[in-house]
Amino acid sequence: VPVFSLLLAGVGVIMVYSATRGPATELRPADDTFLKRHLVFAGIGVVVMALTALIGHRWARRLMALAYLSTVGLLFAVLSAGIEVKGSRARFSLGGFQMQPSEFGKVAIIVALAVILGSGDRVGVWRLLVAGVSVAVPVLLIMAQPDLGTILVYGAIFAGMVFVAGVPGRHLAVLCLLLLTGTVAVLQSERLEAYQVERLLVFIDEEADTRARYNLEQAEVAIGNGGITGKGLFQGTQNVSDLVPEQQTDFIFTVIAEETGFVGSVVVLGLFGLLLARIWRIGRLADDRFGLLVTAGVFSMLLFQVFQSVGMSTGMMPITGIPLPLISYGGSSVVATFLALGLVQSIHMRRHQARDRGMF
């Protein structure tokens, strides 16, 4: 896990620099501001991953209640004390940096669900209900920000962990119906910002004349420009011209595709595939249900984020503002992802301890 994580983080450093180098524009500050900050975020993330792996994932289990309540408290506080960015109040401003509680909330939710769903051999109705409520509370707070992309990630985590936990088929059917109803309710609510509605309209109607249509067109042009082998590092025309909005965050895959082409894109996706395969194997070798479910949650989180981030850049999925894990610029996302991977590495390092104590 650490090897693939560091390789992807290295790709992220290069691509963030490529996407943000040069003189100041309306879309970015001057010089290497983004690069310096991203290096700090990546460095902190690596330290967090190492410390988490050394301390052990079972400490996360003991601190689950504190982590969950802290997450809910921060999500509530950010609605009043947070700063508003592009219509969403999801971040705190801390000494020139920004912290997004919902990113760390992903890890807290994974641990909470692992405790709830893994506390017995059978997941009954009541345990499933408790798990659903534990996810619904932060989701409702995130909806108030609003941040549709993060809500979808929470949903993917919940779905993946419930499936691995072995919930009976009839319960899954009811759960799917409830999730569908909730999705429709969110889309019909007035909580979504105008730009979020435009993004969904573009996915449904390709002829829709919106700002989101322009974003997608420029992203597709950038990917097409890359061809088989790409234009070369730091040589992307769409990138240099700042034609792709948020190219250091939401649309960083377009920078990868334009500058390294189909070959480079496949290599990066291959690294993600190897990382996910490793996480899956660690889950299968876990000694207890808690470890299995934590790996299932991290696997589901990363798989959905990669699929959605790449999909929205290519027009296969609606634009939802989900970062590409370990690669996109964003301190909270990078550090939280490394934290989650530290839990997985801890499970791998201690895979024989539970068995040695006679649990199996």
From TrEMBL:
Coiled coil: none annotated. It is found in: Membrane. One of its GO terms (biological process) is regulation of cell shape. Its main location: membrane. InterPro entries: FtsW/RodA. It is a multi-pass membrane protein. The chain crosses the membrane at residues 34-56, 63-83, 103-119, 126-145, 151-167, 172-189, 251-277, 289-307, 327-347. GO terms for molecular function: lipid-linked peptidoglycan transporter activity. Keywords: Cell shape, Membrane, Transmembrane, Transmembrane helix. One of its GO terms (cellular component) is cell division site. This is Rod shape-determining protein RodA.
